[in-house]
């Protein structure tokens, strides 16, 4: 059966799930529906060759259910490569809950979601993502053990966002080393777009090193708070992509590097926390490269959070979490050098390392 999908500017025919543009040999997609709590969620399991599919749950007011499906397909695929390149024995998965996290998230809805996670018997393990807090994972934990990112007093590794921010900072420094010949960010102008859980801590690291931070966000109260706390400048123009900066750090949502933005960027480095920063990963990675912009692959440098939650499963301590996260610096530098040596994009260089690890495990499992 085919259905018509109305996307901006074009009407295209596609099979409902397997024909989605973001479908990429995903193993399993689970649609969760509960009338009583109003839960509408989709769990995407992309690949479990390296281990159970681990990835956060995002709650977002999607414009359409197709947008939610595409998001979970893209995000879960990214998790596969993130775990693989970071050397973790995890597969890639992600979940999305359709709705406004501020007004529609209830304890009943979170617990019902947890029951759906539990029904997968550990094939998918959840954690927090945009719209979720550690407290939400604590609620999920009351109905299933297949959840990470729970509070420290409940035996978890706590909020992963500061660790993610540290990893992004490491990736940014590696990109600076590669591009400018020095990893010191002193005097560098950095645009941090999205100053949420990760963005704020990133602002702190850059400021502490003497970098000049410009912040943009759709939340005016956050802008005021973060600007006051770290002395960051608030971007007040109409288009943050044309800002006169050295580094652009996307830390809001994905696909901000697209046909409308890539040519405007003044930055010489793109390094941020957001997942799926490139709207079209092959095309936009190449376009950035052609413009001489160093792109630090998102799934490589934002792996701090998954390193943090993986500690809950493997029982390693904070010292080991930070050591593994710091290692993002070396891996990023290696990937950037490989891409230059082989004349391929940095995204392709990172993807190849991840794919090789998965292929080797698959062959060994046979
Ligand atoms: P968050 O929800 O705490 O913060 C996101 C911020 O972006 C908010 O302040 C929001 O107002 C702002 N925002 C939303 N749309 C915007 C827009 N169009 N322009 C400017 N700002 C906008 O989320 P977070 O946990 O900080 O995560 C940020 C990004 O990093 C997400 O894409 C997430 O998937 C990714 N990520 C997070 C982690 C983690 O540990 N939290 C790990 C890996 C990747």
From TrEMBL:
User: Is Transport found in the keyword set?
Assistant: no
SMART domains per record: ELFV_dehydrog
**Which residues of the sequence carry a binding annotation for NAD(+)?**
194-199
InterPro entries (alphabetical): Aminoacid_DH-like_N_sf, Glu/Leu/Phe/Val/Trp_DH, Glu/Leu/Phe/Val/Trp_DH_C, Glu/Leu/Phe/Val/Trp_DH_dimer, Glu/Phe/Leu/Val/Trp_DH_bac/arc, NAD(P)-bd_dom_sf
Q: Which Pfam families match?
A: ELFV_dehydrog, ELFV_dehydrog_N
> Which positions fall inside the Glutamate/phenylalanine/leucine/valine/L-tryptophan dehydrogenase C-terminal domain?
158-366
Molecular function (GO) terms for this protein are:
nucleotide binding; oxidoreductase activity, acting on the CH-NH2 group of donors, NAD or NADP as acceptor
Q: Which domain of life is it from?
A: Bacteria
Q: Where is the active site?
A: 94
Report keywords, A-Z.
Answer: NAD, Nucleotide-binding, Oxidoreductase
> What is one process in the GO biological process aspect for this record?
amino acid metabolic process
The yes or no answer to whether the keyword NAD is present is yes
Q: Into which family does the record put it?
A: Belongs to the Glu/Leu/Phe/Val dehydrogenases family.
Q: What is this protein called?
A: Glu/Leu/Phe/Val dehydrogenase
Species of origin: Dokdonia sinensis
């Amino acid at each position: 059966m085919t259905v018509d999908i109305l996307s901006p500017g074009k009407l295209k025919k596609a099979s409902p799930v397997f024909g989605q543009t973001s479908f990429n040999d995903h193993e399993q997609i689970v649609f969760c529906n509960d009338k009583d709590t109003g839960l509408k969620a989709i769990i995407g399991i992309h690949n479990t060759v390296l281990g159970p599919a681990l990835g956060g749950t995002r709650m977002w007011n999607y414009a359409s259910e197709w947008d939610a499906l595409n998001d979970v397909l893209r995000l879960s695929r990214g998790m596969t490569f993130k775990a693989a390149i970071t050397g973790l024995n995890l597969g890639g998965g992600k979940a999305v809950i359709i709705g406004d996290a501020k007004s529609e998230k209830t304890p009943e809805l979170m617990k019902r979601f947890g029951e759906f996670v539990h029904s997968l018997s550990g094939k998918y393990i959840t954690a927090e993502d945009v719209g979720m807090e550690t407290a939400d994972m604590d609620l999920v934990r009351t109905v299933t053990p297949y959840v990470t990112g729970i509070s420290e007093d409940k035996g978890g590794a706590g909020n992963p966002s500061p660790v993610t921010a540290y990893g992004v900072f490491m990736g940014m420094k590696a990109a600076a080393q590669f591009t400018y010949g020095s990893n010191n960010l002193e005097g560098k102008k950095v645009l941090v777009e999205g100053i949420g859980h990760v963005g704020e801590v990133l602002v702190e690291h850059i400021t502490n090193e003497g970098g000049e931070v410009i912040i943009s966000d759709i939340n005016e109260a956050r802008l005021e708070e973060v600007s006051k706390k770290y002395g960051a400048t608030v971007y007040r123009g109409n288009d943050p992509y044309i800002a006169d900066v050295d580094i652009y750090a996307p830390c809001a949502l994905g696909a901000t590097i697209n046909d409308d933005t890539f040519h405007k960027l003044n930055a010489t480095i793109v390094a941020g926390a957001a997942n799926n920063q490139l709207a079209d990963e092959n095309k936009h990675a190449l376009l950035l490269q052609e413009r001489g912009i160093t792109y630090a692959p998102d799934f490589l440098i934002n792996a701090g959070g998954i390193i943090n939650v993986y500690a809950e499963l493997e029982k390693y301590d904070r010292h080991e979490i930070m050591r593994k996260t710091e290692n993002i610096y070396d891996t990023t530098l290696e990937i950037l050098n490989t891409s230059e040596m082989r004349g391929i994009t940095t995204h392709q260089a990172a993807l190849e390392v991840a794919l090789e690890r998965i292929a080797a495990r698959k062959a060994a499992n046979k």
